[in-house]
Amino acid sequence: MAGSRKGPTARALGRFANNRVALLGLVAFVLILAAILTYPLWWAYSPNQIDLRALNKGPSASHWFGTDGVGRDVLARLMQGGRISLLVAITSVAVSLVIGFLVGAVSSFSGRVLDGAIMRLVDLAMTLPPVILLLVLASIVGTGIVPTIAVISLLSWPVLSRMVRARLLELRERDFVVAARGMGAGMGHLLFRHGLPNCIDILVVYATLQIANAILLEAGLSFLGLGIAPPEASWGNMLNAARSTSVLEQYVWQWMFPGAALVITLLAINFVGDGLRDAFDPRSDLQ
Amino acid sequence: MLPYILRRLATGLLMLVALSILVFVLLRLAPGDPIDAYVNPNVAMSQAEMAALRARLGFDQPLPVQYLAWLRAAATGDLGFSIQRNGVRVLPLVLERIGPTVLLMAAGLAIAIVLGIAAGILSAVRRNSPTDIGFSVVAFFGISSPAFLTAILGLYLFSVVLRWAPSGGMLTPGAPFSISDLLAHLVLPACLLSIGHAALIMRYMRASLLEVLNQDYVRTARAKGVKEFWVIMKHAVRNALLPVVTLIGSTIGIAVGGAIFIESVFNWPGMGLLLINAVDTRDYPVIMGATLIIGACVIVVNLLTDMAYAAVDPRIQVA
Known about the structure:
Chain A is mainly alpha-helical. Helix content of chain A is about 75%, strand content about 0%. In chain A, helix 2 (about 20-40) packs across helix 3 (about 75-110).
């Protein structure tokens, strides 16, 4: 460590580049992303195009992943579903990043009463089983893309605000922050000039792992019929079809492909997230 | 010890109050007229009667007053009526579902604890061996695959393809009750429920045991000639278990989430299925009643594990 002239971020990126599993995850995720984003260019079918001559047909040369009960192409729906799942996940993570950071940062820089009140609220949000809260919120706001994003973001920020608060409580006592306060720096300056740069690692790791989590929550909600409503495709509501016995037993391709897509995507993102977490951990060079 | 318990009890109580406020606020946010929850749908009522009832139930009062009244009713077990099932009270509806859910979760948790701890010990002792790597890969899949997916896959594999297990429900309809019938229905959902949890426990157990194995007292035990098996089981595992116990307590909430999906796929007549059906039909009194009871159970369980932890670990006293 002593001879290293690189900055901490550069060292972290170097560690990440040496982590084969994380790189594998990154490559897999980029490939999935590319496939999802470009599918209209290379695939002949669109997700809601109905082919009445091919109802519940298995995988074949023209429909690689088969068709569903009303003759829609499963591969096209899978790709479109991926777009929706990622859209929901990324938007909700962005929203919860902003809320989580602001709540955590304000809580750590403000007085004891406000801090205590905010943290008890966070405690409460973390005590309730997330899926229960998700169901209750979903039953109030209804189905669709925007309500699903709202529900997932509302649910995810408490954990982040905890981590941000813990980091900034320590930062608050450092000399440069005390000096900044002494010179009359306002809350905005403290949060964004000192707090934000010092939380970047937490935010990056959280965002990556939370994308996987959000995909999972969206799929779970849609699976129960509460997230993305048909005819819009999502991996969760494609899996929902497997709740009917005939689909589960006879039309295996209709739920196995979305299930596989879900697991592969989650694995890839989790690999990247774990890799980033290890890379940003300064202790990992010492081992 | 005593101050810690008292403080923990006080926070637990506060959490319960906060939970009830949250449920109340959500109940008011929900679409529809809150009075629906208090009116027995079998009884025909005129507008004037409704207004009179509204006044009598206090819906013309400010919200905090309403909250106190609702809390008083809820504390005596009056959670209103189900909107969808004519005239059925919410409380008995929820209470009769607790048994099956507890059974499913207890079975799943027991399997997860045994599997997770055994696999964790094996991987830590044989660090970086094929066994360790194999378990790690399985654990990664276990953590990454959502409960509803493992449930569907398990249902397909074990009851459609292999025909080893019944495809759902808790008892064979029409057949007389027998323990073996119940167990046959229980095994598959409980095992599937345990997967994610077992993977989590395994990872924690492995990390915690690896740390303990580097401690001086383990080296001392080895040096004085204790057999390796007893070094692991007596000296290392007992100390490594502490963080795992907290983990188990703090993940009960997540297990509840998994149980909901498993119940939905396997048609298991528990709280989860009740909640999902209630959400499907927008039966708000039932949703809120179930949420209140589940939340209260989770808070109480967390409280109990914290206390058990304090009883086991003497270091907690200082905190």
